[in-house]
Amino acid sequence: MKMYDDTSPRILSVYYNSASSPVTSFSSYKTVSDEAIWNGTSSAVNRTLNWSTTKVNQYTNTVSSEISVTVGTGKDSPVNVQVTAKLGYAWSNMQSTAVMDGGSMTFVINPNQGGWILRSQLVSLITGTFTIGTDLGVTYTTPTMTGTIPLSEGAGSNTSVMVACTTDSTDSRCQATNPFPK
Question: Which residues make Cβ contacts (< 8 Å) with residue 77, sequence separation at least 6?
């Protein structure tokens, strides 16, 4: 993949070098319900909660180095030369890929309990480096990094994982994200 800004006099080219094939995976669980609701009645109720999510990726990378050389013939030498060269480079890129999705789930909420929805987004993980070429003929290569790219439902015959949570659930994912005070 080759990317660059035709109007930039400094960055002539940016190449992405893939170190691996993309791997389909799942993101960590996030609360996606538009609200968490409490059943304050004395009986179990069926409730429908709407959910929505947008996943936006941001990649940031910074590289810098410093070289220091001292030349001399000894501690009391009349010839002592010190050379310090600093090379600094910082690069930041905001990937604006966004995947928006939404829907609703209906589930039972027991008396005096709350309910909310979690989702683990279907994603693609890709590992590689960026090589950046400048107008001075200098090329920088970033360290290897892994990007997380959101995928649409059904990619590779997979779908995101949805979990209907209630405050009385024993599911550790629900317990870890409980929005109600204990």
Answer: none
Lowest mean pLDDT among 97-101, 117-121, 143-147: 97-101
Confirm if 107 and 115 have CB atoms less than 8 A apart.
Answer: yes
Q: Indicate the pairing of strand 139-141 with strand 2-3.
A: unpaired
Which position has the higher pLDDT, 170 or 96?
170
Number of Cβ within a 10 Å radius of residue 59: 15
- Residue 97 in tokens: 């890929």
Question: How far is Cα 37 from Cα 34, in angstroms, rounded to an integer?
Answer: 10
**Consecutive H or E run containing 155:** none
Longest dimension (CA), the chain: 93
Rounded distance between C-alpha atoms, residue 166 and residue 180, angstroms: 10
Could you tell me the residue ranges of all domains in the chain? 2-70+81-176
Tell me the pLDDT tens digit for each residue of 55-106: 665 554 544 445 555 555 556 656 555 555 554 444 444 445 566 778 899 9
Q: What are residue 156's phi and psi, to 5 degrees?
A: 65, 30
Angstrom distance (rounded) from CA 10 to CA 142: 17
